[in-house]
Amino acid sequence: MDAAEKQGRKFPRKKPIVRPQRNPIEWRANLTQIKNPSGTAVNGIDARELSYGEVEGRRQCWDVFQFIKESTPGFEQSYIVEIAPQIGIRETRRIHGEYTLTDEDILGCRDFADTIGIQAGPSRRTSKVT
Fold first, then answer.
1. Cα separation of 53 and 27, whole Å?
2. Pair type for strands 27-30 and 117-119
3. Exposure pattern of 38-56 as b/e (b: 16+ CB <10 Å)?
4. Contact indicator for 108, 127 with CB cutoff of 8 Å
5. Cβ atoms 99, 130 nearer than 8 A
6. What is the pLDDT along the chain (130 residues), one digit of tens a residue?
7. DSSP per-residue letters across the chain
8. Which pLDDT does position 97 carry in this prediction?
9. Contact residues for 56 (Cβ-Cβ < 8 A; gap 6+)
């Protein structure tokens, strides 16, 4: 990727995620990073921005696929099996409640009387979400 960038190719994500799948001939690659032309995040409740993001995401998928196919030995005959049905936006709406969780609440697995769910993330502990 570094050599290709020196020749003018642009990559939306500098640290791609590429990993093999159960089927030994399939690989999953995440090299897209979708944002508006201004550099801001795509607003998940704005239809125009969502439409832009969908088109841009697919353009990035195709561009990166072409790069992999052309420059990675063994991928010359590769093809796309699947693309996500829609872009994933993690930060669209936030609920402002009576209390906002802190890092200490999460890392300390603080318990709340009005817990409505739990989170089992990468840490060894399970955090409750209120």
1. 24
2. unpaired
3. eeeebbeeeeebbebbbeb
4. no
5. yes
6. 889 999 999 888 888 888 999 998 899 988 889 999 999 989 988 999 999 999 999 999 999 999 999 999 999 999 999 998 888 887 777 777 888 888 898 888 888 888 887 766 655 444 454 4
7. -HHHHHTT---S-SS-EEEE-SSTT-EEEE------TTSPPP-TT-HHHHHHHHHHHHHHHHHHHHHHHHHSTT-TT-------SS---S-S-----S----HHHHHTT---TT--EEE--SSSS-EEE-
8. 82
9. 34
Residue 77 in contact with residue 68, Cβ under 8 Å?
A: no
Q: In this predicted structure, what is the pLDDT of residue 88? A: 82
- Amino acid, single-letter form, for residue 62: W
Handedness of CA 81, 6, 42, 47 (dihedral sign): negative
The whole-angstrom separation of Cα 33 and Cα 14 is 9
pTM confidence score: 0.68
Structure tokens at 93: 């709406």
